[in-house]
Fold this protein.
Amino acid sequence: MRTSIRSGLTALVVALALSVSACGRVENPIGPSPPVPPAADNGWSKLSAEAQTFLLVSNINAVGRGGVTKWMENPRVYAEGLDVAGQSAVGGFWRDVTGGGVNLQFVSSPLSEAEHGINLRKGTEGLEPYPGACGLGGVRERRGNVIYRGHGVLAYFLLPDCMRFDATAIAVGYAHEIGHALGFQEHFPVPRVDVLSVPSPLEFVSTPVFREAVTWLYSSSVRPGWKP
């Protein structure tokens, strides 16, 4: 009898263990989620403390509520008022600074409410609380930790204080607002001077720490929702 009971308990334990193992393989009913690599695999531990702080403050805790938040496809961008040369400069900047992780696709018509991408329009709506500001931008829609839509308003051709900038400085302003739409909510902290600084510089500049942070975020090894 004792042998029978012991054998029965052993069988029950094995059955439960197999049941738990099977539960661990159940896929997300909404759709399969890619595996989240550990810190050792995505390079987080190799980042400088300054780059980690900027990512935590500007993206992970600000936009993602504790998890990495990013685009998973190259954003289409409508940039009202930005000429072809400016589009090339802005696209080249973000492609370079992310190590090829972001390749903006500029389009000639505004994106509809149903389309994924970034709409940058000329206007002043929303700038009133920020005296002297020539633009604003940010993430407009995300699903979980994947960004699908961004937006921005540019006043470089509308407000007297914003009309004094040359073509390069205006392009930098567009690059600045696109940076917010790419998932960087906060500005790059002073005394560093970068495209995401305030005020924006008059030409394209990127500090090593900034490049380190944005290259890491848009690396293919960094998955949306990963938490440090």
